[in-house]
Design brief:
223 residues; 8% strand; 10 helices; Glutaredoxin; 5 strands; alpha+beta
Length: 223
């Protein structure tokens, strides 16, 4: 196998953060966009979980967790990105933020965004719970602005937490953009999110690919 293969779904926040790491680390992969309603057998053969993202490296290793793909990507590049891992290893705050996002914020986000998929829930309650977390993240950014004059979550430079969280904040915003954009308590978080949404690499990150179905035609990411 010459090229790494990435199974992805364009709008999935886990897949977005994996692609963001691959893109920022200058790695080129074959990307296979999948329909979550009609998953190719090659995906489930590689990872029985059947979720995206899944990376098959050029040595045949299967990495089926987005955070692991981020770390793999950083390790593949030169020293200009390695601080992202060094910071993560030494800062419990970063690990706590990612855990809060993946296990608590995501829980409330799903019930806010996809309320019709859940029985006997009040989506507004979950919106408020999610917003409480967003406001705590806004406060963290405000702290780093005061201390270091930079708008990141945990310190002087971007960390693996910034890369891991922003796709989920993006998904929250998409539910009610005006409500998010006009919330004065999310001012710092909004500017932080806009850094990514307005980044020159964002169009490449969110490029649309046709669904892959055991096709001989392969697409490259980045394109």
């Amino acid at each position: 196998m010459n090229k790494c293969i990435l199974y992805s779904f364009r709008r999935c926040p886990y897949a977005i953060r994996a692609r963001w790491a691959i893109l920022n680390c200058g790695i080129n992969v074959l990307i296979r966009e999948v329909s979550l309603k009609d998953k190719p057998i090659e995906l489930t053969d590689a990872s029985p979980k059947g979720t995206v993202p899944v990376l098959i490296t050029n040595t045949g290793e299967v990495i089926d967790e987005s955070l692991a793909i981020i770390k793999w990507s950083i390790k593949k590049v030169s020293a200009d990105k390695i601080h992202l891992l060094e910071t993560e290893e030494n800062d419990k705050t970063i690990k706590d933020l990612i855990n809060e996002n993946d296990h608590i914020f995501k829980y409330h986000l799903d019930r806010y965004k996809y309320a019709n998929k859940f029985e006997d829930i009040n989506h507004k309650e979950h919106q408020l719970k999610a917003k409480e977390i967003l406001r705590s993240w806004d406060s963290l950014i405000a702290q780093t602005l005061r201390k270091h004059e930079v708008p990141w979550l945990t310190g002087k430079k971007q960390s693996i937490a910034d890369w891991s969280l922003w796709p989920f904040v993006r998904q929250y915003r998409l539910v009610e953009p005006d409500e998010f954009d006009n919330d004065c308590n999310l001012y710092n978080l909004r500017k932080w999110l806009n850094y990514y949404l307005e980044h020159e690499l964002y169009p490449c990150l969110m490029n649309k690919y046709s669904y892959w179905h055991n096709s001989k035609e392969e697409s490259h990411f980045p394109k």
